[in-house]
């Protein structure tokens, strides 16, 4: 019997650490073992299945010919559960990949005067097994604004730690870091939170409102109605 143990649309990238290797885990296609851990060797969908195998143990190895006729009395059947880890690349559709042009969903984890640091958790509607670091620079927040005017704006007026942001990948950096942009009307904050982690609703393209305190805060709000 084979049983799937994980979400079917969990996306992994090459080099992602999937889990630690154990005696009951089998690294299958699309994976490799390194330093006691199982890693993905391709971009695809993680699949962890549980499979039960029957194992027969002899109770007495010194059986006579007459005793051999009664094997069922001298053997016991044990059920061994194995977990099989593989990465599947579907043949009928392209696997989303973190590359320039990819639309990603990320959470803002830190802001500075020059950029917002994010944790990328999804590509399109596919959940990533391992989050990646995304950087939204001040110059890449707004569209149609000159660099000089852009620098007059503040990152903390556009994003807040905990916000969920829709962004586009513009370049890949080192150490699994990616440069992101929200310089389009359909990109920006899709879920805003305040200092108390309370959700805020969008009022327009630059403001959100807390429904409990009725306070307003500035954000670079995404116009999700423009998303095809």
UniProtKB/TrEMBL annotation:
Positions of the Exosome complex component N-terminal domain: 11-49
GO cellular component: a single term: cytoplasm
Keyword Metal-binding appears in the UniProt entry: no
InterPro entries: Csl4, Exosome_cplx_N_dom, NA-bd_OB-fold
Domain of life of the native organism: Eukaryota
Coiled-coil regions, chain positions: none
Compartment(s): Nucleus, Nucleolus
Keywords linked to the UniProt accession: Exosome
Gene3D superfamilies given in the database record: 2.40.50.100, Nucleic acid-binding proteins (2.40.50.140)
Biased segments, Basic and acidic residues type: 53-66
Protein name, entry field: Exosome complex component CSL4-like protein
Pfam families attached to this UniProt entry: ECR1_N
Region annotation Disordered: where it falls in the sequence: 53-73
Entry's Gene Ontology BP terms: RNA processing
